[in-house]
Amino acid sequence: MKKLLLHSCCGPCSTSVIERLEKEYEVTVYYYNPNIDSENEFNLRLEEEKRYCKIKNIPVIEEGYNSQDFLSKVKGLENEKEGGARCPVCFRLRLEKTAKKAKELGFDIFTTTLSVSPYKNAEILNLIGKEVSKQENIDYLEGNFKKKDGYKRSIILSKEFGLYRQNYCGCIYSKIEREKVE
Q: In terms of pTM, does the model score above 0.85?
């Protein structure tokens, strides 16, 4: 069975993705999310990820909180709407780090939970994933995990396991955008 490093943004998004992938891969979750707006939110999401993965007996590799990685990359894109030009920069940052970690630790392949979200463009994610795959010389598993009711299943599993489910992607800019709507 191939070893897969799964970048995860949070426990709820990883639920249905892990359920789908664990049948074919030896999955390890990689929690690298410098986009998250505060250390408190980062840790809350991390603890939920770890709690779910403990139930599923899935190892978790975590990177500490460092918002400067994200903020420096998206400088000048602060006013973009969620789904705009800022998001692909954030995707690339996280996928590059995941690919490097996968290669460093001897994984066969990597992917991300990000495509389970209805707010994330799977086509752009997969394009970036393939570019990073070539750049780092490690296989990338293309996915659109929202298909086949993946997003709906993640909501069901989140409720079943009592996972904290946030209402924004994590970055301060999407949080501000959501607060304007509410």
A: yes
User: Residue 8's Cα: distance from chain center in Å?
Assistant: 3
Eight-class DSSP state of 35: T
In terms of Cβ atoms closer than 10 Å to its own Cβ (0-12, 13-18, 19+), residue 57 is exposed
CA R_g for the chain: 15
Local structure of 10: helix, strand or coil: coil
What is the distance between the alpha carbons of residues 39 and 67, in angstroms, rounded to a whole number?
8
| 3-class DSSP assignment, residue 173 | helix
The pLDDT tens digits of the residues spanning 43-66 come to: 999 999 999 999 999 999 999 999
Residue type, 96: E
Q: What is the DSSP letter of 81?
A: P
- Closest Cα to residue 107, out of 11, 4, 15, 35? 4
Cα separation values, 156 from 5, 63, 141, 147, 153, Å? 24, 28, 24, 15, 5
